[in-house]
Queue: 3 jobs
Job 1
Amino acid sequence: MIRTTTTITTRTTSRTRSLFSSIASPLTEPVLPSSENQEPGPLVNTQVLLSILCKPNWQKDPYFKKIIPSISPTHLTSLFSECGPHNLNPHTALALFNLLSQRPAFKPNVQSYSSLLLNILVPGRILGVAEKIRIAMVRSCESAQDAEFVLRVLRKMNDTSVGGGGGEVMFKLTLRCYNMMLMSLARFLMIDEMKRVYMEVLDDKIPPNIYTFNTMINAYCKLGDVVQAELYLSKILQAGLRPDVHTYTSLILGHCRRKDVDSAFRIFKVMPHKGCRRNEVSYTNLIHGFCEAGKVDEALKLFVHMGDDDCHPTVRTYTVLICALCGSGRKTEALNLFEEMIEKGCEPNVHTYTVLIDDMCKDNKLAKAKEIFDAMSEKGLIPSVVTYNALIDGYCKEGSIDAAFEIFDLMESNNCSPNVRTYNELICGFCKAREVHKAMTLLSKMLDKKLSPTLITYNLLIHGQCKEGHLDSAFRLVNLMNENGMIPDQWTYSSLIDTLCKKGRVEEAHSLLDSLGGKGIRANEVIFTALIHGYCKTDKIDFACRLLEKMLAENCFPNSWTLNVLMDGLCRGNKMHEASQLLERMVHRGVKPTVVTYSILIEQMLKEYAFDHAQNIFDQMVSLGHKPDVCTYTSFLLAYCNQGKLKEAEEVMAKMIEQGVLPDYITYTVLIDAYAREGLIHRAFDIFKCMVEAGCEPSQYTYSVLIKHLMKEKWLNETRHRIGQESNPNVTSINIADVWKLMEFDTALTLFEKMNEHGCTPNAKTYTAIIIGLSREGRFEVAWRLVDHMTKSGISPSEDIYNALVDCCCSLGMYGEALAMIDTMIRYGLSPDLDSYKLLVCGLFDEGNIEKAKAAFCSLLHHGYNHDEVVWKLLIDGLLKRGLVDRCSELVDIMKEKGCHFSPQTHTMLIEGLFDRTQGRER
């Protein structure tokens, strides 16, 4: 139950009440900057400004010169609103307005224009100037809200008389002003307001001109509403006017927007017969329409004929075609057109470059993308947020997060503000690289910059937390979503259900599935498949089959992944007959088997060494047009290796390479293990060399296999030396799971020596795999000796290595060493995991080293971690779970003193956790 702060404090005893006093108010109040850090300009007082303006030589007034930089449009609005033509000379007011408008830093807004018009110029009857200011006001609209405001002002002028003493004048709107207002409304597609303004033109007995009609037609055409546009076309004819090139060009646009390029082309062809010369916009609109319809070749033909009408392609014409060619996979033609564009003196703009950069990034040609970006910058073009985002997204998808952040830093240094998409791409990159704590810090930065996280933002973070197995944090993010008015969707729950299943908490996952209906969310095939997979993994095949029936009953149709998951479960449960029946049933329902489906059947048969049956299915799969993948071939290779048939295994390897299927780390490792088991350790390293040269990164499992056999070889040699005779190999058998428990430092040196002999120099990933393996087993001394060896070899330890060593130290109670390790990480610009900080801080508190624990916590707060996550993982999941209530309260005090803010929802969780733990301690 969620309790309010008041309820909690009234239920606590006087002894525990002080515990809550430091956190009884939410830590979400903004921290005001100290006055000593602010350097404000002189305050602008409208009365003082008015007194200056009343002087004959007000422009030379020393105080006026001092306050000019501080005068804002808001100040002008207040000045003109408080004064009138009797208190402030209209010509002086206009001179002030013009003087300020010449300053680059000053940009009049619609409110300042309005106050000048309504309070100074119109009452002062300076109507000629007022009309120019009125037009300028309409043109200054920068948003739909501005347009609405200006429209209210114009209507007020049109309906109200001005002047006095029997000389009242109506400052009615002119057709030019109406037309400019229509154009402004059209910019923001405010169609309903445009219709009302058009009717007001008619009510004022002002005959619309061709500009009026064209503006209405263009606005409807932008929305693809050609029917309404044609009504205004008929009004042109009724008014005795002739449609012009703008009329027809808008209609071409309209038909293209509604995907009717044939009608657009008919209008294009009829233009010369109507006495209208086609222009560059006419061509570009139609070219764009063809491209949008996927008719790129027709667009190119039209492009070639532009010269027939003495039209020259504009930068937009080229960019539209380049974009279409890139989207069609015709990259060479796109680049050729780009070169032609430059040769013909049509300079590419930011959008042109952005199209090419984005396409290169999508094609993983990041070096070329960066080259184009640099060329663009050299030409003095300022990249847009879309340009930067394209590069950031490309680097993140490649896993080059550091390069992505360099672009991010460049973006900010060039005063280009990152948007939500920028942050989402970086968050996605961090989550993909399994660094979700860094992704969470970006959430904090978004909130600091007043950018509202979207559903995509939260889903990425939830998926990242789930990927790391941090379910509690994932569910807390769901609560934050709800708190911020965002509704979790199918993707949100698919991540949660999948992770619950992977952790073996299948019943909880099923309960969550059952709750979705009440949340208005329909379970999709991804959610059902995740749960079916969970039941299969826990050997509850009957439950999985029943879930399939439920899925079908709810009209949620299985896909090939659903079929494969269930097929795998049935095969592992030795239910081959049921698997065959399922396959037939799913095929009948339109679910097509994939190469994975057949590979599952092949793998099961090969486990039983039924090579002939497996080969028959393999041949059947190939005959149906399915290309065997690396898993298919690896199943055969593993089966042969397990029977010691290395010749056949090598033939499988040769065949897969011949078929263009690249072996993965599992394929290579299976073969390495097989040769080593036969005592052919040199041949095993030959395979390892092939693996490295093929660009296949060895995994931790690969290294553990090699180390296992090196240890076995060493022990056999030692046994022979002691006994003087051949030893039984079974005496020295080593379980792969025990490798890191038993490995010694000299074995690592032997591994490095063998690698060097085969031309495979140990790299950072080699050391990382071994050190992490040792650290997880508490083998700190050996791991640390390897770090020293690594450093002496000129390789810097990674963030992963340090975090593994910190965790190892904490598990061994070596908190001083862990603290030193974290200090080293921070000094080198590396980020310790929050889980590592949790182990360290809680461990220091446990052993009574309070000041060091607090110092470590303060260090954490200085490095930009998301404060919600700090509370979740360190305070709630760390200190409170250990019953360290007082220490938790002390750390909350520290967070409050340092201005750390976290959400009200996290605040409530913390209060409840403190209360529950305090009550439990008292009982």
Job 2
Amino acid sequence: MAIRVFVTVVIVLAVISHAFCIYEDQVGLMDWHQQYIGKVKGAVFHTQKTGRKRVIVSTEENVIACLDLRHGEIFWRHVLGGNDAIDGIDVAMGRYVITLSSGGSTLRAWNLPDGQMVWESFLQGPINSKSTLLVPINLKVDKDSVIFVFGKGSVHAVSCLHGDVLWKKDFPDDSFQVKQVVQVVGTDSTYVVGFAGLSQFHAYQINARNGELIKHRSAVFSGGFSGEISLVSSFALVALDSSGSSLVVVNFQDEISFQKTDIRDLVDDFVGMAVILPSKLTGMFCLKTNNHVVFIRVIDEGMLELVDKINNRMAVSDALPISESQNAFAIVQQGISDIHLSVKLASDWNLDLLKESVKMDQQRGFVDKLFINNYVRTDRSHGFRALLVMEDHSLLLVQQGEVVWCREDGLASIIDVTTSELPVGKEGVSVAKVEENLFEWLKGHLLRLKGSLMVANPDDVAAIQSMRMKNSEKSKMTRDHNGFRKLLIVLTKAGKLFSLHTGNGRVVWSLFLNSLRKSESHEKPVGLNVYQWQIPHHHAMDANPSIMVVGRSHPSLNAPGVVSFVDTYRGKEVRSMNLVHAVVQVIPLPFTDSTEQRLHLLIDFDGRAHLHPKSPEAISIFMREFGNIYWYSVNSDDGILKGHALKRNCVGEVADEYCFETRHTWSIILPLESERIIKTVTRKLDEVVHTQAKVTTDQDVMYKYISKNILFLATVAPKATGNIGSATPEESWLIAYLVDTVTGRILHRMTHHGSQGPVHAVFSENWVIYHHFNLRAHRYEISVIEVYDQSRADNKDVWKLVLGKHNLTSPVSSYSRPEVLTKSQSYFFTHSVKAIGVTSTAKGITSKQLLIGTIGDQVLALDKRFLDPRRSVNPTQAEREEGILPLTDSLPINPQSYVTHVVKVEGLRGIMTVPAKLESTTLVFSYGVDLFFTRLAPSRTYDSLTDDFSYALLLITIVALVAAIFVTWALSDKKELRDKWR
């Protein structure tokens, strides 16, 4: 009997565990995962005759990746993290990928075929300085290749096989800035050259085998130096003087000599200051002037010779050795709808080894970087392939005049996300597709049956998944009844918009905004946010939704702002504006005009408010609510919170009825010697709350304090602003505030002694959840604060409800001092956190789940009931019936609760949730270097059937039951007749 009970329990647990999982053939039906690497900043080709053709790249997202040259797919990659920026990359001994990162302090070797780390070395030095990586050719010390690294103010020689530091050379002058480390081919001498101060040049000659100093020479150039240098030979380099108008050729082979040349003697129309471009050419360098890129050759005794002038829209590659005595390099010039690629010999400018034109999508912008590689054709001539990094951060491989493959790696740097509905289907949206013939119908259901019984082989699983993808309507370009199909509009760091279909993640359209591209007026434009501008509910059939993209012409806060309006169906820019004022803050207002355009306030650097859209109807709507508009600002550096309201129209030389002066309504000044602001969070403006009442034990009722004007503020002690462990528990504390942003009242204040940031928080309904580190317990914690409205506590009186004297429907006002009750609790949590989100549904009925982006780059779904502050060690029977769980000191982590399953969202930065029309379901989009999308049902799909529900099987079952009823009815009549005859 005991054995039977045990077997029954095991079977029940197995069935329950499978209910939380997805089958192998269901992967990709409700979710998709896309991998990217980011904008490439360094590339090394590996194209030996045997093995796969590869290119190893390093990116601005701190990713090292090995790509297939044939298709652009990722062989392997490593995301090093936000604090481990890559300084250099190269290939050593034909089998190791060498990377230098973290300001020259971390050197790693990776196995080229599979990407496994071979060794890691940490380099120490006296000061922080620019880092340089040099992998010499054919330089061996005791049968071991040597790697030279300059970082932390010292030169290190590192073993390529083991990563051991063979020798280290420090420099006595702390002001010495190394510009180049040069290994002279065929000798054991290494030169380290650079500047000390503004005018002194130093050249150190070091024995590459033992690190001994052979010779040190220095000289002073009276004109001073500025900017970068360009090495033109093993013993000569070119620099700019302090004015940026003259070139200085420095020769350091025997004695240091300077040869100065005025740029105007070479370029007639030169004005202003020039910049030396970072290119590695033999005997030649590139100079960027006001209108052109100039190629200049260095001839005998430091004399300069103008080779050619090309317009600014170009890129040049480093020199590529194609033989023992010849080097080639490539130039890309931008055309109207194409690019012109040419490969030249460094020794003969007029000879083109390759010259071709390639059609290019204008939405990719200009070529930003260029890397070339050569191969030998069947006729023994040299062919070339070019790797192009475009202005929108995409990566292209060009060969024989065609784009071989393209990667949209700009999607690795998303800075903001919003959504848009799809067009309404005029013919209606079909529910299911009819199978082609009877054979396909039977085959499909047989495969589904094998999958349900878990007897399908890998081929059957692939066929089932392909069949489901084919018959699925999730990728249609019309709205569906459940609201699963939407457009994700993402803005990248490059200033490009992408529209992604939630069905399969494909790019529907992309748009490179002209307002966020580099130009003479916009030197370094940056995108800020994307906002909903027009959502046509009543005009859905004859108007398209649009979004507003806000940015700046320069990263500084006082730079003029730029605004663009984009049609989300067509992917076209409707109009754009170059503002005369800065944009520090954007406030979406809860008002729309007759065309359903949403009103926005743009706050400039001087605190003035500007209304958009600028129309008479918008200003009339705005003036009716003039006295009820409040907002706040946070100055983290000074520890000041301020409340703002409108005052009057701006007073200036030109009257502008859409510009308003503002006034301060309140301010909170935190003492900087004891508190530093590290986190602020508010509720989502479009969040839906189903009910304000919460029924508790013994049929008691508590009323949530629901207000969109509450701000969660977290501060820490000044010594605790650094990394974890930078302060002792006695020197560290974390304070959590709840502030009313209309009146400036502090509704709640809680202190966590011995706690430290970073803090990640999410605010929903009447509760806020935040994650921090407890130094005393040496563990992470998640804390929760819930706020309840005590002024409505008497609403549970039935007679007041009958007589209509209750205040249940009265609005919550910030002007009256609220009577609030707070409940809080803290729990230990295992993981560090990168981002926190919360599920949102259409009506707010479905229970909430917390979405936690862990340090392992996965998303964990945690039921909100685990973070109920009313949990106790021994809950009563009434509390158990209410759903309150017994109190434990730590939060449980169920491996089956990971939304991302087994995949990782590398470099996870944000989690966004969007409600579907179906109340049980929410759409989850997480982004970082990778993208992941899925559908989530926190309370299960209680209001719908599953996607794999077999309607045909249901129909067959109904028909069989009806037939069985008629057969049994006939048999029953015959039996009854026989019984009567007896």
Job 3
Amino acid sequence: MAAVLKKRALAEYSQSIVQEAPFEPQLKRFRLVKKQASGRPTLALISCLQNCKNSNEALQTLLRLIDTFEFEPPDIIEAVKKLSEHFKSEPESAVRVKILSLLADIGHEQKADLQAIIDETLLLLKNERSHKVIAQGINTILKLGKLSVDNGVLHLKLLEIVKHYLKDVSHSVKCKCLEVIGTLTPITADLNTNEIVHLISSYFNNEDARVRSQAFSTLIVLHERGMTLNPDIYMNVCQALKDDYEIVRLVVIKLIRSLGEAHPENLIMLPDSEQEVRLIDDAFGKVCSGLTDLSMRVRTLAAKLLGSMTQVSNHFLNQTLDKKLISNMRRKRTAHELAWENVTSGEWASGKKWADDQPKEMVDADSINLMSSGACGAFVHGLEDEYLEVRTAAVESLCQLAMKNPDFANLSLDFLVDMFNDEIEEVRLMAIDSLRRISEHIILRDDQLETILGALEDFSQDVREGLHQMLASCRMSTTGGLKMCIEKLLDNLKKYPQDKRSTYRCLQKVGAQHPELVLPLIPPLLCIHPFFDTSEPDVDNPQYICILILILNAAKYSPTISPLLEPHTLRHYAYLRDTMPNFVPELRLSEGTGNTIIKPASVPESFDFLKTIVNSLNASEVSYRVQTNLLQMAKEHLNRLSEMDSSIAGIAQFTSLYIGAQLLYAQIFEKGLWKNPSTLATQQANILKTNIDQLLENCLKMQYLFVGLAANEQCSIKQFRLRALALNLIFIVKASNSSALAPCHHFLGAVEEMQRELVMHGLEPDSFASSVFKELSVLEEPKPGAVARLLIPILSESKLAKIPVPNSQVRMSSAVIIEPSNQTDSTLKFTAGLTMAVPLEAELFNLSDPSRLRLIIKYPDQRTHVVLPRPAHLKPLFFDNDKQDSHSGHNLRLLTTVLISHQVWSEACNVDISIALSVPEADIAKKKFNDSSSILHLCKPQKISVAPKPIKRGI
């Protein structure tokens, strides 16, 4: 009976296939017809324009075109024709404006005839009277002209037409015409520059401010495109600085800066004077005068532009910091100058002579030089401005000029230090960073250092850490200044214990830069007495660690420091060298101290040993058991090597992980039970599933936890992961009741991505990948069962690829949680049901993608919370550019708070906090087949003792 039913089922199945076969070509033809008609809805909407009863309906129809704006090449000509016909019969100007706008959008379509659309637009504008429509038509011509970059004949034709429309009375038409002239004028050797400049400059005195502004902007555009502007227009441009409108003054300042940079050595005659100055110097003075403008936007722009004018003479540059106060045309003298004059004159005004106390330096209004009065005290005005934007731009420009001029850097030092007391934190941070950037040109005096150290009392941690970075970069002049700096940093550390790491890093750089100043301070800092033995300090005291870091880093560059150290200080050095190797340098101490540090193996020696291990494994052809023992031994050697030599730790860990994945793969294939896991016992099946999951996790670690991998190494990892995905798919199909559709899609997506990458990099696939590519290409319907049956013989026959050749540029991502630390035994208490904020500070190294970073909070009841840290809480770990390598990933510092909440516990328990990367499982070809993600931990979890208290009820 069962056989009869089986025959009947097979007969019905085969009969259904025969019936559906004739209809397949019709379905394909239907789809093709539908695809060809994809651009017709837009054309149909345009055809509806002739049925509109009024202009409002026509405008609504045109607005609907934006949602379905799609054309096939044959439809473009017809669409332009219908829009043009409706334009001629449309009485409403708003509808005609929209039609011209649509013509510009149609020109951006592929295979659109730009010449035909431009000619049609010019034909429509020929009899137009509305200024709005003409302006939009010229704008359409401008957009279409930009698309035809190489058509110089067309551009010349458009320029002649646009010059005709310049006579229009509307400001919008004139502005668009000037914009076309600036954008489409061909910059060639035979271009008549004087004629173009003369035409544009004739609109400098137009009655409309918008036209004047556009005329100046047109010259700026032509200058940026490579046209050389005639410096003769400079005086006319400078007159526009007195314009009543802000938009004009903004553009004029930009043009003056451009003229100054284009012709810096041209000499110009000052008005009412026989003196000649360089054009760049006079332009600098004119831009400086913008810092006294009434408009905040003009002052901000002027302050920004000053930083880019680096060819100015030192005399004019120094004037920007010399603020001469002038009141009622008389120079105001300082109190010191007045007192000195009284002492040296030997007489006082008696009142008997007429006007014997008149001011001796009367200033004539006509004799005031615009250049000198503009540059005089310009940066002082900018730094004292009431608006944040102006002060910020002034600080940035001051820093840019100081970086190029050491003398100016020393003059600007006092002004930057004064900005440390600004009321806005952003300005203080910028001033601190500016001082750090110019630190190579300056030496801090004691009075300046006192003002700087006063800013350490700032409540903002960003400001304090910025000061630490700045002090680490600057040089100090005296021992007293260095002592004052050390004392202030130690006092500040008591007030803000969270600044411990930043203070350590600061004193490390200070000690390395000032060994000659640290030497006389060693006895008072370490309490060394010539006759009495002092008590041994506590090595866990942060203040004492700061002093040791300072002295030990100075001892690296001063051999006379080491003999002054006490025996217990040398023991503390050995302790800090083991616990804090990043802050304490390696010192060559005498043999009598017993603290000689053994120099680790050099990079070539370690790297050669690593290459020897990999080459021996790739060349060996032995039995399975011997091969497993070799891999296991090599893995142990590599783990030990990564601990010994940090310079090749990344590639050693990568190779160890790759060998571990090979061991897992060999363990799965040992007895061949993976081919039919449904026959295994429950425990064996669970072991097999665990091994496959571990293999997938190792592949993800190799793919996402390492930076600096070459293309062949990345492809080798992904090909190995293809094997793991194939094993996972076979296990789900053969020994699981769950759906295998998503894993199958995931595997096929990985195959497609792998094939594209191999072609892109010109690499050959391994035996497994090449077989999969070949078999899947002939598979008619890639269902999970068919794919799994296809993969079993391929996996059985293909051999493992060789271990990738070591690459010394590989680095492994890692994280170190500094706070909270495991050393604290105190229990954190909070009210149950509410939240408690735990400060978290961590250092992250070699991250390839910081957006994948996650915080993992695991409670004692096994509940886990995954938190995405805010991007603002991630800051660069190193500020020096020479320590940042784009190939080695991002080094960041995470400073945030972790929110913890739970119900009442019977006793205090530990909550685990760790840092991890979130890696989407379906991160293949930028297409997600499922929403699952894997968590790759970057460090061991930090445990904190937490005890939620019950809510107190009653009064």
